[in-house]
Amino acid sequence: MEGSQCAFSFPSSSVGLTQPPSRRLSAKWSPHCLHATPHPLTRDCPPTLLELSPNWASSPCDPDSPGAVLVMSHYVTSGSVTPIRPRPPLGAVCEGNSTCSENEVCVRPGECRCRHGYFGANCDTKCPRQFWGPDCKELCSCHPHGQCEDVTGQCTCHARRWGARCEHACQCQHGTCHPRSGACRCEPGWWGAQCASACYCSATSRCDPQTGACLCHAGWWGRSCNNQCACNSSPCEQQSGRCQCRERTFGARCDRYCQCFRGRCHPVDGTCACEPGYRGKYCREPCPAGFYGLGCRRRCGQCKGQQPCTVAEGRCLTCEPGWNGTKCDQPCATGFYGEGCSHRCPPCRDGHACNHVTGKCTRCNAGWIGDRCETKCSNGTYGEDCAFVCADCGSGHCDFQSGRCLCSPGVHGPQ
Q1: pTM for this entry
Q2: Which end of the chain has the lower number of beta carbons within 10 A, N or C?
C-alpha cells in the first residue's frame, strides 16, 4: 500500500505525549474531541484520547505501523477505525536507547511524557506564562503580574506586586514589598510605613526604618551620632555617652581591670559580686564544708558520711539512709525507709508511716510490739503495747489483741 493511501489528515498541533528517541513520531491531536474538552491554549483535543502505538510493524497501514494513531481504544488509518489487537506487555524500559530526554518523564515502560511546564512533540517548548502544569493545561491565576511554578502553580510576583495572586500593587515608594503581606522594606536612607520619609543621620549611624531615629554605630553617641565614645574600646550609651563597660573592665572610662576570681565587677567601683559557691573580697574562697550557694548561705543536705556537697548547686554524691534527691534534702516517700529509700515500712498502727531513716514505727497495732511491730504479745499479755494482763482462761488461751478467752476444742463457756 502506498504511503499516500495512509495519509494522516489530522491537524498539526503537537501534544505532550511522546515516544522514546528511538521510536518517536510527531503525534497529532484528534480533530473530533470525542468525549473531551478542547485544550485551552490550542483548542485541540487532549492527549488522553490520543496516543501513538508503542509497537511497530513494517506494513504502513497495519494498526501497529507508524502511520496509525490510537483514538480511545482503536487505531485510525485513512479515516477507518481498527480495534486494537492485544499485545504482550513490554519490559520496564525508559533506559538505554529508550531514555527520556531532559524535559520528559517516564510514564510507563517505553513511553515518555513532557514534564510539567513543557509541551511539544519533543517537549522542548516552555509553557506560555499564563499556563502551567501537565501539557500547559492549567491557567495561571497570577498572570500577568506574576509567574506560576510549573508543578504546583504557586505564584512568584513580579517587581512592585504582592498578594496570593499578585493582585496588589506595591505602595512602597523607596523600598520593596513583602510578597505575601505587602509590608515595606525600605531602602537605606528612607523610613516609614511606605518608605516615603527621608532619613537625616550621619555616616556613623543607620536610620531606624520604623521610626526614622538614628541608631549609632559602635563607638558613637548623641542624637545624630556625631560624638565619639571615650570608653577604652567599650560601647557607650547612645543618648548620654555613659560608658557600658565590657566584661572584666570597670571605671568611668572602662580603663580598669577586674580582680574578681570567681565573680563579676561592679562597672563603677569594681566591687566583686561572687558566683554561687564562692566568697571573699575577690571571690577566691570556696564555701566551707556543709554550705553552698550564693553567699554560701545555704546548708548542704544529708550527704553520706558527711561528705561536702558541691559548692555551687549543693549536690551530693550519695545520701544518708532515709534521704533522697540530688541534694539529699528530701525524706523517703511515705511507706519507705533506709538506704536508697528501698525498704518498705512494716505495718505500723492504723497504717501510719515508719521512721524514714530507721524504719521504726511510732505506735503498733494492739497485740504487737517491737521497733517494727513484728512481735506478738506473750506471757499472758494483750492489747496496745501488750500493757494488759489476760484473765485466767482455764481450758483455753487469751487472744493477744483483744484479751478475749479462746476455748480449746470441746470446751465452752466464758472462761
Answers
A1: 0.43
A2: C
- Set of cell numbers at residue 92: 520496564
The Cα 41–Cα 139 span in angstroms is 9
Phi, psi of 330, rounded to the nearest 5 degrees: -120, 125
Using CB atoms within 10 Å of the CB of residue 408, give its burial: 0 to 12 exposed, 13 to 18 middle, 19+ buried.
Answer: exposed
Nearest by Cα to 209 from 258, 235, 175:
175
What is the 3-state secondary structure of 350-394? HHCCCCCCCCCCCCCCCCEECCCCCEECCCCEECHHHCEECCCCC
Closest of 384, 391, 379, 350 to residue 369, by C-alpha: 384
How far is 38 from 398, CA to CA, in rounded Å?
Answer: 108
pLDDT in tens, 144-155: 888 898 888 888
Give the three cell numbers for residue 34: 470525542
**Which amino acid is present at 157?**
C
CA dihedral 228, 229, 234, 239 (to 10 degrees): -110
Ranges of beta strands (E only) in 68-191 are 69-71, 74-77, 80-83, 104-108, 111-114, 118-119, 125-126, 131-132, 138-139, 146-148, 155-157, 161-162, 168-169, 175-177, 184-186, 190-191
Q: What is the pLDDT of residues 96-153, one digit of tens each?
A: 656 788 888 888 877 888 888 888 888 888 888 889 888 888 899 888 888 898 888 8
Q: Count CA within 13 A, CB hemisphere, residue 49.
A: 14
Q: What was the pLDDT predicted at 82?
A: 32
The residue with cell 515516544 is: 19
Q: Could you identify the residue written with the cell 548542704?
A: 300
The three cell numbers of residue 45 are 483535543
Q: How far apart are the first and last CA of the chain?
A: 133
How far apart, in Å, are the Cα atoms of 124 and each of 18, 117, 128, 384?
11, 10, 12, 102
For residue 119, report the phi and psi dihedrals to the nearest 5 degrees.
-150, 175
Cell numbers placing 157: 510576583
Neighbours of 412 (CB within 10 A): 8
Burial of 278 (0-12, 13-18, 19+ CB in 10 A): buried
The Cα diameter of the chain in Å comes to 136
